[in-house]
Amino acid sequence: xxxxxxxxxxxxxxxxxxxxxxxxxxxxxxxxxxxxxxxxxxxxxxxxxxxxxxxxxxxxxxxxxxxxxxxxxxxxxxxxxxxxxxxxxxxxxxxxxxxxxxxxxxxxxxxxxxxxxxxxxxxxxxxxxxxxxxxxxxxxxxxxxxxxxxxxxxxxxxxxxxxxxxxxxxxxxxxxxxxxxxxxxxxxxxxxxxxxxxxxxxxxxxxxxxxxxxxxxxxxxxxxxxxxxxxxxxxxxxxxxxxxxxxxxxxxxxxxxxxxxxxxxxxxxxxxxxxxxxxxxxxxxxxxxxxxxxxxxxxxxxxxxxxxxxxxxxxxxxxxxxxxxxxxxxxxxxxxxxxxxxxxxxxxxxxxxxxxxxxxxxxxxxxxxxxxxxxxxxxxxxxxxxxxxxxxxxxxxxxxxxxxxxxxxxxxxxxxxxxxxxxxxxxxxxxxxxxxxxxxxxxxxxxxxxxxxxxxxxxxxxxxxxxxxxxxxxxxxxxxxxxxxxxxxxxxxxxxxxxxxxxxxxxxxxxxxxxxxxxxxxxxxxxxxxxxxxxxxxxxxxxxxxxxxxxxxxxxxxxxxxxxxxxxxxxxxxxxxxxxxxxxxxxxxxxxxxxxxxxxxxxxxxxxxxxxxxxxxxxxxxxxxxxxxxxxxxxxxxxxxxxxxxxxxxxxxxxxxxxxxxxxxxxxxxxxxxxxxxxxxxxxxxxxxxxxxxxxxxx
Length: 699
What we know:
Keywords: Membrane, Transmembrane, Transmembrane helix. 56% of the residues lie in helices and 11% in strands. By secondary structure, the protein is of the alpha+beta class. The protein has four domains: 2-39 and 176-200, no CATH class; 48-156, no CATH class; 204-573, no CATH class; 585-698. The protein has a five-stranded antiparallel β-sheet, with no helix packed on it. Strands 2, 3, 5, 7 and 10 form a five-stranded antiparallel β-sheet that branches. A hairpin with a 2-residue loop joins strand 2 (67-74) and strand 3. Helix 1 crosses helix 2 (165-197). The longest helix is centred in the N-terminal third of the chain and has 33 residues, at 165-197. The protein is globular, with a radius of gyration of 29 Å.
């Protein structure tokens, strides 16, 4: 009876966990994946013209009579409003429509509101706003846009409501319940099937896989290139998106554009862009990379402990992902699963005696090394250290034939992985440029970096890093009880130390550099927890045990507040996914003007480091140096090459993506200014961003 009771409780816990996961997946589907149009709360209305007239008046509390229309919302999606202007002239320099009486704009503007159900014109409200008259479909209303706080007023011109908001919430709730039941039933059948046919797969491991699926999605939900973001990704992400977009247009890396990143990273960017014909496809590959890396880390530590601790180690160990990748589309994200795979294979070496790897494992180790190498060199630290460690260990055991076998198969795997890239480079006559840019230039870039010691302190002295190091100290104290794991622990800390050095190689403290350390953190946590458990079992005092539990609790809470990469800071960054028409408004305004005055065959140039101007305006770069900062500080010859490119090519438009850059490099800046003054006309100048058109285009 007691045995049945225990089995019943275990079954109960399992079902409760499965129900919770089913509900979370159902909520994800209902609230994030199902388009707003599917709910059809309002009847569809035909396109409508709406007239907005600034009255030049304000209430007694307002400081000014300005009117600003920020954006449109149609069936849950937001749209930049300047695209829908039928007539009238307002100030659209900030990607919204603003009227103020000292600018000489017409008092009225007509907007074309597209077809839709729920349709809203969103006005900006603040202490500076005045009165606006709204006219549409024979109706007229005066709206006061004054507000004591900066906010928005959504003027509703939706069609007749099919049902109210309350009914909508009930429908969504019913959808969550219905989909949860379906998901739960599918999972139950899946677990029954795996239980019968795959005896080695635990149901709890499948539960862990589902949790990792949700956690990995949560980690990258806030990325600026996610499906839920309306933002234009920032440097360096916008440059990488341009690379993917330009390759989809047939451009060749290193030949048609200059960037010192690896060829396989460029392939990923191109593949991602082609998946959806937008940068959302890149985000999908990012999420897959994070998911696979976390899953591999789970299987790495699952060999040594139970389901709960393994899952706990992955979630805590990868918590910093939310903060480190908050902007999205970094090279390190795509190297992370290969690093996790390399760590898993290196761990396999110690699983069974005699210590060795089979041929397939060595081959895959070589493949994973080369793929990481062909994305970014400083991502390869774990292979150099791990392979060196294994070779030394084999030498100590006098297994010389094994060392030769390992070396040959590893090199063969690396060659097989490099071969597709080599063929691509040779066919496109880009091998010479690849060597010059990816290797020679990169070494110069690293040599001219920042403070390496400061970077080591910055990335090493996080709370998670301190816990990992504390695990090393505790391992020394408990060395007798951990004797069977001594080689594994020694190799792990060699991997961790060198990964920290590789992370800090450039001397800069950009957060995404630390991504390559993330697959190592779960193992460090396991070592720490194992040591704490050993100490805990040797204690006889309940008071000391309680104190130890409190310390562990405070450590877990501390992960939320660690200033160098915490969960709360990452979650706060998720607010970036919300729509704001002013976000990177210069890129939107400038790109729109480029599209209006040039055709798709004409090329442009951006001075500085703002790749978004290219792919938002849908124009290729006239020069392979589509950005020049910080390239010109590493190789001064790039200045002359770039100047020669724009003088010969005479791009249709030139964007100065930051006037400070021209001031910083005096001679280069002066030549650019002289060239622009002689051949171009300024069309836009705000926020240190300038747009110039060739004189024959604007005449």
